TrEMBL record:
Keywords: Cell membrane, G-protein coupled receptor, Membrane, Olfaction, Receptor, Sensory transduction, Transducer, Transmembrane, Transmembrane helix. The keyword Cell membrane applies. Residues 41-290 form the G-protein coupled receptors family 1 profile domain. It comes from Equus przewalskii. This is Olfactory receptor. SMART domains: 7TM_GPCR_Srsx (SM01381). It comes from the Eukaryota.
Length: 315
């Protein structure tokens, strides 16, 4: 069914992060800087993994997918916000809003699934090191990656198709900097009970299943590491999953801190803070975590940079 049969409005208004005109230039500069850092940082991770055959292992294949998802996630919302600030316009078309919502849901879901797959990889590497190559074969790695992307698209498509059945009447103002599903449901003048039920029934396993895999994996990892007699051996085992654990704590810590702990902050502001942490801050810091805390990535990045520096000197 065509959109005009479903909605009486043709665009939405995104109020952004602040309605204070004097703050817009600061927000523009800050988010432009964070966007460029995110794209360059994650792009370097992908390039490094692609060019260094030593990093063609399951953990780094998952990391390359995570970096691509992070670039894509921040690109669904920040460029539009920057353009609106620059043009002093708050509008986004109905079609663009639905598309933005689809991809924002998908990339949050893929982050969950990939973090779960990476935790399983660390579990096999530390708890079953002798069988690692047998278990984590390229076929399984590709299968886990494909399943993560397919499930994320199914989740996002489900919410999008249900949303397209709703009517939007007079109000078209979203107090946010991108089209968020929860706010769109509040804005609709149709009965959203089914949408909210599906949001809970689908969203709960998307969060809890990968988290359960991560929790189980790290419980087993801690038990295995504690059986190692030498302190050096324990530190070496923990260091192989330090970067992943840091990203996991940042990702799920944001969920707990923003959405589970009571705060005096207004709900709209709380949702904006959560969205900024998910879509901007986390994707931006992930490359720093993996490049600063991971010896393999640090070594590969140094080789890549030295190679790029050497090429202009060649005749």
């Amino acid at each position: 069914m065509h959109r005009r049969n479903q909605s009486t409005i043709s665009e939405f208004l995104l109020l952004g992060l602040s309605n204070q005109p004097e703050q817009q230039n600061l927000i523009f500069a800050l988010f432009l800087g964070m966007y460029l850092v995110t794209v360059v940082g994650n792009g370097l991770i992908i390039l490094t993994i692609g060019l260094d055959s030593y990093l063609h292992t399951p953990m780094y294949i998952f990391l390359a997918n995570l970096s691509f998802a992070d670039i894509s996630s921040i690109s669904t919302s920040v460029p539009k916000m920057l353009m609106n600030i620059q043009t002093k316009s708050q509008s986004i078309s109905y079609e663009s809003c639905i598309t933005q919502m689809y991809f924002s849901i998908m990339f949050v879901a893929i982050d969950n699934f990939l973090l779960g797959a990476m935790a399983y990889d660390r579990f096999v590497a530390i708890c079953h090191p002798l069988n690692y190559m047998t278990i984590m074969q390229p076929r399984l790695c590709i299968l886990l990656t494909v399943i993560s992307w397919v499930l994320s698209n199914i989740v996002s498509l489900t919410h999008t198709l249900l949303l397209l059945q709703l009517l939007f009447c007079d109000s078209n103002t979203l107090p946010h900097f991108f089209c968020d599903l929860a706010l769109l449901l509040e804005l609709s003048c149709s009965d959203t009970m089914i949408n909210e039920l599906v949001l809970f029934l689908v969203g709960l396993p998307v969060i809890t299943f990968p988290f359960a895999v991560i929790l189980f994996s790290y419980i087993c990892i801690v038990r295995a590491v504690m059986r190692i007699s030498s302190t050096e051996g324990k530190w070496k085992a923990f260091s192989t999953c330090g970067s992943h654990l840091t990203v996991v704590l940042l990702f799920y810590g944001t969920i707990v801190g923003v959405y589970f702990f009571p705060s005096s902050t207004h709900r709209d502001d709380r949702d904006k803070i959560g969205a900024v942490l998910f879509t901007v801050v986390t994707p931006m810091v992930n490359p720093f975590i993996y490049s600063l805390r991971n010896k393999d990535m640090k070594g590969a990045l140094k080789k890549l940079i030295s190679r790029k520096s050497f090429l202009p000197l060649m005749p």
